[in-house]
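Explain my protein.
***
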Amino acid sequence: MAPEPEPTEPEQPEPEKSEPEKPEPAPTATDLPLPPPAGSGHYVYVDNSDDWDDDPFFTNWDIEQFPDEEPEEGEEASPEASPEISQESETAPAEILSEAAVTEPDGEASAESTEQSEQPEAPAVPASTSPDTAAIVSAAPVNNAPAAVPPISAAPVNSAPINSTPANSPAPAAQPASQPVFQATVKPIRPAPKTPTVEVPAIPTSLLEYSPEPDMDSVEEELNANGEKLIETLQSFGVRATMLEACRGPAVTRYELQPAAGVKISKITNLSDDIALNLAATGVRIEAPIPGKAAVGIEVPNRKVSTVRMRELIESSAFRRAESPLTTVLGRDIAGELVMADLAQMPHLLIAGSTGSGKSVCINSLIVSLLYKSTPQEVRFLMIDPKVVELGIYNGIPHLIVPVVTDPRKAAGALGWAVTEMLRRYQQFAANNVRDLNSYNRLAQERNYIDEQGMRMEHMPQIVIIIDELADLMMAAPNEVEDSICRLAQMARAAGMHLVIATQRPSVDVITGIIKANIPSRIAFAVSSQVDSRTILDMGGAEKLLGRGDMLFSPIGNNKPTRVQGCFIDDREIEAVVEFIRQAASAEYDEGVMEEIERGGTQEQSSENDTPDGDPMIPEAVRCVVEAGQASTSLLQRRLRLGYARAGRLVDEMEQMGVVGPHEGSKPRQVLITWQQYLEMAQNRGWES
């Protein structure tokens, strides 16, 4: 019988190492040892990587030891039991060993007696967060390991060996040789998303133009003359008032008057036409009272309008200090102060006004200010332009998700895609227990864009959906457009998606009550009647605007709108800004979004079941109306169990095919074909009759 090992610290044979005169170069893939075949040794490399080509340096290979046969009595374990693993530890790349993560050995080796808990643990090395290098896990020797088995040597990290036992530690106890000594696993880490290749430098403001300085001498004369005439006019009608202040804006000057005691405000407001006559003004707007002041404001147009150029607003300190990437500039108010808006706070904007009032210039100023303020990684655009000629100049910039959509039918599909994207984002938020886009992006950055399940987390930009003419879309596909706009307006704010909608026909069939209820922030340009002003703002006032950028801005939370002279940017400036961006970075359109928009973008349409007649339910709908002898949307809803929007589309398609007649008010539509004609149609079109 062989004597049992003494409890003193055993003498472990040290592997012979040659002292190289020069440091050896880092090993390459050909220098590293290949994994030994099964049965050639106790240590076997196990491939846990997904692809051999992606892991030429065996960073994702596990090291597992298989027990030797139990030695007979009188034999000792050979100190050279694992030459391969010692060679691997000596030749391992320095950069991999420096990023090693030391963990507790799992499996049976981690569950030992209470004596093992007194053994000091090896110093821990923090795991590397590099996405390209998997964490290499090594384990300290188990306390009860046989003394004859040497520990795996490794390159020192922070001047302390990875696998080392303190000198003052007690001697390890004996352990059966059949139990594994080392057991380590490597969990592959998914790589972080690639950094976006699109980088747009800061756009110089020199591409924009300055506005000329006004003649201050003529301005003073005009203010004094109008003030005197205004007081004389009021006194002639028996209204006593005192002039407090005159605030001159770019296009309008507001004269602030304080009525005498006992004078009704309604008496002043009824004199607007008389005041305009005496001042020889095109129109006078009276604000009674001024919000926050004990005064009445009488707004008189200036004889010479000062142009508000966009450059002076972009270069302002207020715009530069704004932190939100959705900050836009609108113009200057009556006092000449800068007026900005944050789309993230609105969160949607409705712009309406008659032709030539300045809607398109306002939209261009919004877009250009967003281009100056944000990068393609922060804000993306989805532009819909049924008029074809307004927004096409922006094609080719990297901020666009897809090229500018000009077909009204495809526009409905684009809005359908936006609804789908909104729902997809909310699913991602729910999976990561966050509530909005900013929280999700912040969490993704903290986790290095890898979630708890090891899946990739993408950075989600803000999406601004711009519709230049809503009236054309409502004529082409009213049901789909209104439904999509309402869903986006109700839910898209937290998903980081914002609507900017413009129309030149502010009627109730275009700006419906549902749209108005979900878009609280509005801009009204000059309109022809008070009815149109009430349709936009729910109050009058827009019918007295001067046009050419004169607007009433009513943001969310304000009881009364603010009169603003919109900033001006011409086509040459827009072309210069867009050309600068195109030269810096090209557009990267999303092919998947383009394909979805092409096929309609609605969930009801399926590419697998499409028929030459459009909707796959057309054959059943035609058979249904021919059998019933009449056609109506409610009939298709009951018989085919469809929604109202799809049933209405089926009726419209059957009218185009000549199956049913035109709309006749509340009466059902007339069926124009007989049963025999239906059978012939079904045979010709390949329907199953």
